[in-house]
């Protein structure tokens, strides 16, 4: 089975890191294709970055469709373009925020999120509300690390994340922590060992949920509002999307 | 004062119609620039259309910034790219769904929405929940009209909308109806006269709210998560967005 | 157009102050009549004060109806008598708490309220819940100033409000602050300059929203539960309300 | 123990009927004083009626305080002036809507409300939301009976209420029905016998809850926002309220 | 009238203490039978303890039915087996958490809970959400006292509870405190005197509510989902439950 | 890896059927042990049945612990004893209602539930609210089939379920249907083929989620309220639970 793990930003090193994390947890028969759009922001730290990256996500799903993909993962914690991506395919599509929230509620009654920048906390809050998990989450915390610092300086970033996770453990009355950035995918084990609390990481969560859905033959419903988009003309640089 | 009314789809006739509706309600000193992106879908009838259109909205806000715009309106009922657009400017930005919901709660205790296609009803439901208006809305109804039929065949579309509005009036225990498509902007008066209920139309609502905010010098907060996006590199066809 | 700005308490100096603030933001063609009931509490700092003041609000709307009023503003942060007032007129009626909440959500994703006394915080909490804005508001704060101190000693009161607003800015992870008392209407600019955050003030917000609704010919719906009250007899000192 | 049952409207026959219902369920040592304000609407069928009646409720509580009252009941289904009344006394104060909702959740998992006029249904909806019972209530139904018809023509009114209750039983998937008007207090037993479902009636519910609170020495908290109102001057016809 | 007060744990001394508290507030004609199951945990401090204790609660209701019981109280703050118990009888059944929440909202607008162990706080949170009282409760606090310490060392436990209640009073902006354990039933008066805030205790609250329902002839609805369980076979050690 | 699938009722034929469904979707390395308690109800159709069955679930988890189990599934749609079971193990524990809800939200925006008896619909409603999925579910429907009829007369039961699913498809504006009974595990494919909508079945969903959690080494958090229960004495027929 083929899972396309889409890093919505265009930083190739992060895509590779995410791909390695994804492959490490994949089932024996699962092949991971880790990819990122050619076009888009090198990191996603704002609503604007997120909106632009959704185009790249859709492009990657369209590519995936031509290659016979069985499931998709959107590997950015804001789940950019999630519903749009679902419309484009019969395969299941998972966002990593969504995936992590789901699993966190299965192993704890309350969790906190540790994300990169406090300015993106609102994105997590909006997703929690929309998905229905707001009352399961005690607090959205930020380690105040720009996303690309996770690439450059793993050690320093790791320390700050661990410190914030420890504060969450001490103050938030929780049973688990959700990591709030796809770029933290390779750090989950170290954080868990340092903090002593279950750490739910979205990339790995989403890969396994994608396998779950695919193995149950539960693809995105094509009945109702996630059916393929009505065919229509697109103009200008999006003309290739016409159908 | 200059308000840029952005039709997120690329159908110029709809843009013109929206511009006329906007200008008709604008204050004497307000100049309306009705515009649409060069690139994007000719109508917005899916999550996918919406995601693509958000790029055009951002482009139009960036253009607007170079021309000294005082406020922006996003004239599609899904409010595509709203938070991204807010990040790009100190000026206020209004979505037409948002605007209509706000005004509807000021003149009635409960309202219903009459939109185009039932498949896009979920978009309105998500916005109602996110904005906090879910309990004010009795029902999201669809007249089952493709968006561009509003351009081609006004009379037939009008009849179907009026019929659905009458059903809402008879069955929903409401005080007002919100029209769920920017392409209905020119029909509001006729619908109101035919139905006998206050009709809240988003384009006109948003223009007046934009004037309101601008006149109170209340621009988008640049403190917190709607501050300008962190400067960064964009790649590929989005390279021009780099800062 | 004529807007009747009703200060629900009977302190004439506050009414004048509110009237000046209202007129300052009004459109050229708008005439503000700032008024207060003859009968009622000199300030509103409890549920009891609020209940009594609602009678005066209704009286003022009835007076306004005889004078051909185009819109009404209820200039107390508890929005006393709002739904009753709406029943009495075809014109739009705006409360200042309501108005401020609406605008605050258009320029920020999260706001805090700074009100006078902590004992009235519950009134704001109830309104936030009823209107649907509870999740947009991080915190209801009190500067612990009796309402009439806003009349007597502006400077001292201003300092305490500014201090509380600064704490809100530093601690609450917000983009804007809503001022929680009609008596603060003249302080908004100074507070904004001192705090460095958008300050949403209800009197000015409500005046502009009243203009917005009136210009769109959106009056209070007379279909459903805001229709004119069923005619009936009133007894005793309320006999004049019989119809 | 002395319970003052306040009928917020000024129809003496209804007050007497309510008083009889109250006395019938009262404990042996409980004395019921059924009373209504001198001034106010003869029935309560709108937000406006409700706002005016709140003054009379407060007057009656003030009278009650001079007579050494142990608990108060506000016998109108909108619970008018409830929080204001609580501020005026150390004794417990119960609204009949509130009381009925509480008891209904103790004997069933879901209930429906059958009230008089559909235009007042919104009042029940607002109370359900504010109190926290919205998800326990399947539906707010109206028998479309003007309140005073409950005085004039008991038989006809009874039939319409029973019919609506039967529809609730058949269609709403409920375990109990809440009667939505103080004027139905004497009809509860007949309705229950005719419908075959537990019928929760607010006057009797509130009297017993008032006894419950009083016997547990649980009066209205005077710590926090229900403390006695801050002393102040009232003007005009409300001058007698000054303290 | 006969009320069976069921202590769901098997510590007889606690049962007696609860019985004394119950009898002290009971009406003259009410006889309290305080009882506990033969089989079950000696204290309830986890979801597991709670699940096991629900069997004992059901057993005690079945016994009560054979003895002609008029109402039941489940005297553990998690309300274990509440809905199951309701199915087994036409009599009303009250949980003490439920009972305390109801009364607390009648005398204050916001309350806090002081319970024994922080690990059981989640049980209170779940009940608050399910019953609809989440927004009335500011905070769930724990005095960190194992339940049986309430039996062994009243004085020390009392001090810790009083300390936590004082913190609630000082920090939580509340009007009342709910005691979160049946084992605190005898301490309520002392705590109230020491803290200076209304203290709502569940055993006494539930007894009076049980009397209230019984006197109004409001038993558990046998229409709908609380009807007697469908008759069926039980196996093994539960064979005696077959019907 | 070893998954213990616990049928909480004591009907062995249903356990076998559930086991077969579970094994069919299990990964190659997964061994399914399908089991049921010796003691308990032969079917679960009430709150009472559910309460009793929770003891058996706990027993089965305790047995499983002695046999080195990697994950548990509770195969009854009310998820009886779920939190208690989680306390007893470091392994993940999944309920089938929970599992089905999670997956349904990943492939559709809105779903309906088709369960056996309408009297148990409230159990699903309570779970939806507690888990946070209430707004994702349009409607809880019942095919009005006693649980054991699923054993006796598959064909007739299947027809009724298919009919109800078709009504859901036609009337509910949904993208997927959740089957509301563990006894329907073997019918999912037939129902899907007959109805033409994705059908989410809980047993298979839970097995795959159990594998997911186990493969990610995400066991039930032993930090906080799901830690092992405090050791204590149990009396009577539960003495063997003492620790």
From TrEMBL, chains A, B, C, D, E, F:
Q: Name one Pfam family in it.
A: Asp_Glu_race
* Source organism, top-level taxon: Bacteria
InterPro entries, A to Z: Asp/Glu/hydantoin_racemase, Hydantoin_racemase-like, Iso_Racemase_Enz_sf
Please report which protein family the annotation says this sequence is part of. Answer: Belongs to the HyuE racemase family.
Q: What is this protein called?
A: Aspartate/glutamate racemase family protein
Q: Which organism is it from?
A: Aromatoleum evansii (Azoarcus evansii)
């Amino acid at each position: 089975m083929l899972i396309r793990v889409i890093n919505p930003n265009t930083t190739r090193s992060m895509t590779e890191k995410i791909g390695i994390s994804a492959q490490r947890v994949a089932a024996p028969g699962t092949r991971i294709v880790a990819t990122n759009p050619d076009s888009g922001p090198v990191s996603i730290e704002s609503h604007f970055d997120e909106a632009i990256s959704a185009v790249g996500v859709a492009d990657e799903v369209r590519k995936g469709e031509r290659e016979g993909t069985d499931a998709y993962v959107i590997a950015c914690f804001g789940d950019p373009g999630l519903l749009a991506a679902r419309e484009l395919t019969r395969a299941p599509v998972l966002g990593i925020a969504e995936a992590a929230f789901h699993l966190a509620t299965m192993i704890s009654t309350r969790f906190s999120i540790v994300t990169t920048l406090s300015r993106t906390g609102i994105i997590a809050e909006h997703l929690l509300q929309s998905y229905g998990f707001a009352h399961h989450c005690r607090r959205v915390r930020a380690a105040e690390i720009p996303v690309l610092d996770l690439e450059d300086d793993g050690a320093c970033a790791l320390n700050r994340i661990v410190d914030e996770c420890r504060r969450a453990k001490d103050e938030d009355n929780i049973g688990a922590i959700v990591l709030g950035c796809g770029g933290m995918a390779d750090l989950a084990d170290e954080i868990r060992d340092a903090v002593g609390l279950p750490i739910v990481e979205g990339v790995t969560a989403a890969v396994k949920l994608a396998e779950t859905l695919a193995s149950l033959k539960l693809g995105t419903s094509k009945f109702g509002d996630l059916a393929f988009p009505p065919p229509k003309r697109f103009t200008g640089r999006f003309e290739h999307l016409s159908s």
